[in-house]
């Protein structure tokens, strides 16, 4: 369902891999009986037209059903736990000119990427709370 990478791509304003996330949330929030019925009816094909015009914008994410929001929330928490430092620590390092300049160019770039990723994840946490 999520392709080879097994990850979803989030942007500041919307989910960039919206089809994969939509299908994944739908399936993971189904009961076993609903899933069997969905598979038997070839539901994978039927939904593409109905959902084609929809986007998973930040507004849409905040309006998801409670089970989907909980699943997303817990997933984001797990992802954030996989990072070595929290958002505040990264921000402190970015704001500490002396410590920042001691980092190699590559470490500085990695810091900016991690910080941006964490900000997006924290934004998603707020949207699905």
Would you write up a description of this structure?
The chain has 129 residues and is mainly α. It has one domain (18-128): Alpha-Beta Complex (set domain protein methyltransferase, domain 2). The protein is built from eight helices and no strands.
CATH names the topology as set domain protein methyltransferase, domain 2
Q: What is the radius of gyration computed over CA atoms, rounded to a whole number of angstroms?
A: 18 Å
Can you name the CATH architecture? Alpha-Beta Complex
Q: State the helical fraction.
A: 55-70%
What is the fourth-level CATH superfamily? Rubisco LSMT, substrate-binding domain
CATH class label: Alpha Beta
Tell how many strands the DSSP assignment holds: 0
Poorly predicted regions: none
Short recap of the structure:
The chain is mainly α and 129 residues long. It has helices at 18-28, 32-40, 43-51, 58-62, 66-81, 87-95, 97-102, 105-128.
